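Propose amino acids for all 377 sites.
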């Protein structure tokens, strides 16, 4: 029996593998709670389908003669005919496509969003994270407006590179168009031309005239500036909530010309803490320096190798992308424990297979801080 208790006892990696095996869309970007909810929902749907299939044929709910609608003999006969396997498969595929096309936000609780919003958060010089919420009313309005073109539309994130053309007016050009699907509310975006200003928009691509596509925008994010690769901010943070002030600053929160109330609101909601922005934030001496010494040390590991360009490589069961020359490189977290990682390469036809097992251990010790009074210096 699958239950919330049994699933919660599993690790995030085990839950991700279960979700991948069962075909849960968007599993790669889900956290543990989201994975548990998705697997529970899938199990309930399968149970309901099985119950419907085992339901005795020919039974019908009891309806009083007063409320029972009058049906023609032809219509009653058509309803008595069982649905063919092909028709059922087509219906299920259409329902799945409709679910993936709708990007309406469906929270686990009953607190549904009241407005559309998307924010862009800088993670480091090469990675940003987009988070969005779209209401069901907005998706329904777009569906009605597009009419028959709704079934041909595609939900996308449009990454916009913001630049200036020699004056105070900014110019936005499309840098990337990222296909998304229903069931997810955040996406990691890789960029290579830092430092650069970006915004991101969410909407639908629909067929246009002459074989082109038109973009129906829902909403647009705050503007951010990615740091240069050799800047002090070029580091990896494991969780936004651990240093929400820094992420707020990197994402343009303290810039007067690109400040965004949505960015502040989302970060405060997700981190569970208030951002301390006061009238003194514009004074350089107060924003750059602190009376406390901030010091963080972390470690990641890089696994790399080479094989046949057409081979399949997995690390602990997770597929690895292989370059055209057969090389592969994976950057992974290095938790404070001992772990065993099997790295397996197999030929495309499955006739050959080789495995290398990596045993890696990390042991971190944080020494006590040493403080000296200013009068002693």
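Proposal:
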């Amino acid at each position: 029996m699958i239950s919330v208790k049994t699933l919660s006892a599993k690790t995030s990696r085990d839950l991700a593998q279960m979700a991948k095996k069962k075909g849960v869309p968007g599993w790669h970007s889900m956290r543990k709670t989201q994975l548990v909810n998705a697997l529970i929902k899938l199990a309930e749907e399968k149970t309901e389908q099985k119950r419907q299939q085992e339901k005795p044929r020919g039974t019908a709910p009891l309806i009083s003669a007063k409320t029972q609608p009058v049906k023609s003999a032809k219509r009653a006969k058509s309803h008595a005919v069982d649905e063919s396997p092909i028709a059922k498969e087509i219906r299920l595929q259409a329902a799945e496509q409709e679910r993936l096309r709708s990007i309406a936000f469906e929270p686990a609780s009953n607190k549904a969003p009241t407005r559309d919003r998307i924010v862009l958060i800088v993670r480091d010089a090469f990675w940003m994270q987009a988070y969005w919420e779209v209401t069901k009313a907005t998706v329904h309005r777009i569906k009605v407006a597009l009419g028959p073109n709704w079934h041909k539309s595609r939900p996308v994130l449009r990454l916009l590179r913001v630049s200036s053309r020699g004056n105070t007016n900014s110019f936005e050009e499309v840098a990337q168009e990222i296909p998304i699907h229903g069931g997810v509310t955040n996406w990691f975006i890789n960029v290579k031309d830092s430092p650069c200003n970006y915004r991101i928009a969410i909407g639908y691509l629909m067929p246009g005239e002459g074989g082109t596509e038109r973009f129906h925008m829902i909403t647009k994010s705050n503007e951010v500036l990615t740091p240069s690769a050799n800047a002090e901010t070029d580091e990896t943070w494991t969780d936004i909530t651990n240093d929400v002030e820094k992420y707020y600053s990197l994402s343009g929160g303290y810039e007067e010309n690109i400040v965004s109330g949505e960015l502040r609101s989302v970060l405060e909601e997700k981190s569970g803490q208030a951002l301390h922005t006061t009238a003194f934030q514009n004074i350089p001496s107060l924003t750059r320096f602190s009376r406390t010494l901030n010091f963080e040390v972390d470690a990641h590991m890089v696994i790399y190798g080479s094989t046949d360009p057409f081979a399949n490589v997995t690390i602990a069961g997770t597929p690895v992308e292989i370059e055209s020359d057969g090389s592969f490189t994976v950057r992974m977290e290095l938790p404070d424990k001992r772990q065993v990682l099997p790295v397996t390469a197999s030929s495309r036809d499955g006739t050959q297979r080789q495995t290398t097992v990596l045993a890696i251990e990390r042991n971190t010790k944080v020494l006590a801080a040493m403080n000296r009074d200013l009068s002693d210096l």
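The mean pLDDT is 77. The chain has nine helices and 14 strands.
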